[in-house]
Amino acid sequence: MSSDDDTLAAVEQAVVGVPGVTDLYRARPTVASTVSAVRGIASSAAPARVVVDDGVLRVVIGTDGYRPAPEVARAVHDVALAAASTHGLALTRVDVRVARVG
Amino acid sequence: MSDLDALEPDDLDGHSIDELADYLDAGMQPPDPSIDGSPACQNALAAILRVRHASLGSLEAAARDEAPADESWIGGVLANISLESRSGRDVPLRPQSESERPVMTEGAIRSLIRRTGDGVPGVLVARCRLDGDVTELAAPIRVVVEVAIVSGPSIVATADLVRTGVAQALAEQTDLLVEAVDVVVRDLLEPDPDTDTDTDTDTEETR
Question: What are the start and end residues of every segment in region (Disordered) (chain B) (predicted)?
Answer without folding.
Answer: 188-207
